[in-house]
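Progress narrative, work stream C.
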Amino acid sequence: MIRTAFATALLLGLAAATLTSPAAAAQTARSSGVQAIHTGPGSFYPIVGKLKDQERVAVTDCTRQARWCEIRQLDNGPSGWVPGSYLIGSGAKNAVTPFDFGFDPLWPGGLRPRR
């Protein structure tokens, strides 16, 4: 009985620590220069706001190779997409960028031409 209660308490404590760990928190980066915030991943999308130079943002998503990243401003400013090359913080970008295997096992020959 005591062991079961201790094990339950230990598991609940580990779960709480995991949920509040830095890994569970949003990844942040900062802007290198003033950047336009777009509604989608491309310069042809409408501009909804601007990032200030060195402004910290939460990175929520990136396209392949982190060409464009979706950001959320920490001061509740407009959210949207900015060029990934203008965000400083490779850890934040890597955490949300889809992995590119470089080959497709279902493609004949294994190596798919780059687009």
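Work stream C, second folded protein:
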Amino acid sequence: MKFKHIYLILAILGVTYTWYFNIQFYLTEENISILNFIEQTKTTFPAKSITADISVVVITFLVWMIYESLKLKIKCWWIIIPLTFLIAIAFSFPLFLYMRANRLEKLKEATI
């Protein structure tokens, strides 16, 4: 198994693990609006800390991802941006790493 396949496994884990809890929210809450979901991320100091932490990680990832995508000419890189917000960074980050590994592999093959 190539190392890039670990990225795919992590992407699957990322979508499965995060959406398990999202589904629990939708099954147990009366108010399932996105505003209520976001509001609940601000209910405790630990929740605020995690939200702040993830926010900085997302911004850093997106800046690096855009730079790296343009530099390596990765196709369809832009799809990672909405996936980050619609699904989870736990999914989009390893998916981008898989896309990047594929591109690096193709560039390496082209130079041989």
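DSSP finds five helices and no strands in the chain. No further action is required on this item.
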